Write a sequence for this structure.
């Protein structure tokens, strides 16, 4: 599901690159070499954290529990969770959610 969703995330990350929106990917539950090769091949336009041990996800378990893969989080400008999508998200839906959180039309 993450690989299927990747083009939508890349599209929106590129669309919002100059709008003070930051994307971060967390690579989990895949073979390390395969996950890293995928992000390089796709030329993912945002940083990704390789978390094959699960430590990063555990560090967020109280504040950002991920109960499904993929999970997409939108954090507002105050550092609060504004949206959690626990499934594949389309580019148009993600862009709309970001705009809603930012209060922009």
């Amino acid at each position: 599901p993450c690989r299927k969703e990747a083009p939508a995330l890349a599209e929106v990350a590129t669309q919002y690159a100059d709008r003070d929106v930051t994307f971060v990917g967390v690579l989990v539950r895949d073979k390390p070499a395969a996950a890293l090769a995928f992000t390089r091949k796709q030329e993912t336009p945002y940083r990704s954290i390789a978390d094959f041990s699960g430590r990063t996800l555990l560090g967020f378990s109280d504040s950002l529990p991920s109960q499904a893969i993929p999970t997409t989080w939108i954090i507002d400008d105050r550092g609060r969770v504004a949206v959690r999508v626990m499934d594949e998200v389309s580019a148009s839906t993600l862009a709309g959610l970001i705009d809603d959180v930012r209060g922009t039309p």
Strands lie at 24-27, 47-50, 72-75, 81-85. Residues 75 and 81 are 5 Å apart (CA to CA). The longest strand covers residues 81-85.
